[in-house]
Amino acid sequence: MELRPLTPELTVSPQIRMDDIPALAQAGFRAIVCNRPDGEAADQPTFDDIARAAREAGLEAHFLPVESGKVSDDSAVQFGALMATLPRPVLAYCRTGMRSTTLWALSQAGQRPLHEIISASAGAGYDLKGVVRRIVNGGKTPVEVADASHAVVIVGAGAAGIAVAASLRARAPDLDVALVDPATIHYYQPGWTLVGSGVFQPPATGRTMASVIPPGVTWIQAAVAAFEPERNAIVLDGCRVVRYEQLVVCPGLKLDWGAIEGLTDTLGRHGVTSNYRYDLAPYTWQMVQALQRKGGGKAVFTQPPMPIKCAGAPQKAMYLSADAWRRAGLLANIDIQFCNAGAVLFGVADYVPALMEYVERYGIHLNFGETLTAVDGPRQTATFQRKGADGQPETVQRTFDMLHVVPPQKAPDFIRVSPLADASGWVDIDPTSLTHRQFPNIFALGDAGSSPNAKTAAAARKQAPVVAHNVLALRGQIAGSAQYDGYGSCPLTVEQGRIVLAEFTYGGKVAPSFPQWLINGTRPSRLAWWLKERLMPQLYWQAMLKGREWLAQPAMKD
């Protein structure tokens, strides 16, 4: 007997035998549902035999037979109604458990998010990609009609999506390109660090999505529910279908606020803030000022396990806050703790000495190997987990007046449960060509890709021309193969007016864009601050999002 739980209330299994019933009763099951018609196999017990044994063991038994490969909409509705009335937990079975799982999945359509249904089914060992569209359609069989068809479809209209659309149109002005994204506002997220330090105002970091969509590109304002790469199609919410010849996937990543117990209940209150959200970055600056008015206090800054969007951002918030307290003459009265789940201050060793100088200047206490697990806002207490001296997990509680949280981050749910994902949930791509390893007409860039580069806007700026070139090469409109070298950049704002400009490629190789006499990236620079504050926003809005590839021309394969 092979039991495969879907939920705490429902477990599915392959065909059971009468002598399995006592063990099921002992395990706590209270009802059995048979989804296999009698007579499918010569060695199959009839439902009457199973029901008789179930009654003797004190279990309810119900018969809802479904032919293999023919799970109807009506039978899914019946299964859902049956589950609502049966005592729980319930065991449902068929020949392999697949029909029972499909019935449950369809019955849950509209009640649970698609990713929860797919994840639970996959966890039990069942691949439901064949019924994804029905689940998206509320558990009903959709009409097989494509709502739209485009040569190139781009999923995600963030920095990566807009940039690659613009690069495609710059190279092929007549190319039929569509962007799929439900958002109405496009944000310049690198600016939120400066919002959190009082340098930028929030409105300066956002523009309407309609204003940044490249001319001639079709904007499909909808969310993607699922991918059907074998059919060159994506399924939108509401079961609308969009077909493509080439697909570019760049929806960003998911900030998993809910992974930290109590965090969502206290964000924006009790001193708990984060520059990773547009509406919270101003609160960071408010809390910096609040500690100044108070004359001191405890400030805790966190960094979760990698990968995260812009690995330097947790430190940027800390250094700029500390610099504000230094300028106010209060630094000696502020207890600053940096709790980093990782083992080093920064992943590229060349930049660490300069950062350590600021750590020492600001009196920052470094706590490596500490992962934030819970926040009690009213009590202003943060709980961390770390390894003790004996190697066993232990918890540490820290009180705070200000807590800057960077949440754990992962691929979006609809990516993680899709055929495009690798074992870690990211879009599975070759790190140099940015082409999907299984589907050659699919590309990915930006934060959702599996390539091991830093997840920064600077990386997307370099990736976009590579993807644009390789898409057109696949279409036979251009020659050669463009290569991405893993370039990423992290302007580490160590104080107001100075930046350590970290630039590097795969393997942590330092890759400066400017001569050392102009900007030495391993040392704090005023010119680098000017670039961050004045030039980079304009470079973003007026160059990157418009297909102007200044310092971003792709390298070609030999």
UniProtKB/TrEMBL annotation:
Source species: Amphibiibacter pelophylacis
Protein name as catalogued: TIGR01244 family sulfur transferase
Source organism, top-level taxon: Bacteria
UniProt keywords, alphabetically: Transferase
